[in-house]
Design goal:
By secondary structure, this protein is of the alpha/beta class. The protein has one domain: Alpha-Beta Barrel (TIM Barrel). It is about 30% helix and about 20% strand. Strands 3-2-1-9-10 form a 5-stranded mixed β-sheet, sandwiched between helices. A 5-stranded mixed β-sheet has the order 4-5-6-7-8. Helix 5 links the parallel strand 6 and strand 7. It is globular and about 45 Å long. The N and C termini lie far apart (about 40 Å).
Amino acid sequence: MSEAPREAAAVSNAIRARRPPGGALLDLHAHGWERSLDSGASTAALVLRAAACGLDGVCLTDHNAVCAPGEAAALAEQHGVAVIPGMEVGTDIGHVLVFGLDRFRPELVHIRQLRRIALAEGAAMVWAHPMRELNLPRPDWAELPALFEALEVVNGDHNDREDGYFAQLAQALGLGCTAGSDAHSVQAIGRVATAFEAPVRDLNALIAALRVRAHAAVDLRRAPAAG
Ligand SMILES: [Zn+2]
Ligand SMILES: [Zn+2]
């Protein structure tokens, strides 16, 4: 018999324990193989796993590609969780999660141009895994509040802490903190999540919550601090 259901049940206990009362836990960063060639999981399998774990939703953030709104809506309906279309854009300073743009365009790879377009179109931006070492120029930390709503301070592929360097930086700069599994496999879903103070059922609610920083990064692989 597969271990998967038992493992998903253990994850769901951790998720229940960390969900804010009246709020929601969402994975803000996942890749399905239909649009992300480096993923080993179908989008439907990722959503199924998110629902099985007890997450309230998952954001589809494929590399330089956005799923059709109808696809996300159909998966949400089928599995009973929020399925929010987003995109992970490869920019000249690294990967950036964008919520609220409907398609990739080549000019989005320049971070300041991406920001201009995102603001004009009502989108929100999160600097994905800023702790990842890349051979790219980093923005001046003082510029970060002009570029992003939040920093992804906990990423499923990195051993970061909820109170690590980038969480402290985000707090000092008045930016939000998110967590995303960066799932390229089904098992990665449920390792980390972003906790919201209120329900987040669709893209507009997510953008609104990111704008007011009404959320926190949660690492479900670690026990919550006592007290
Ligand atoms: Zn990335
Ligand atoms: Zn990613």
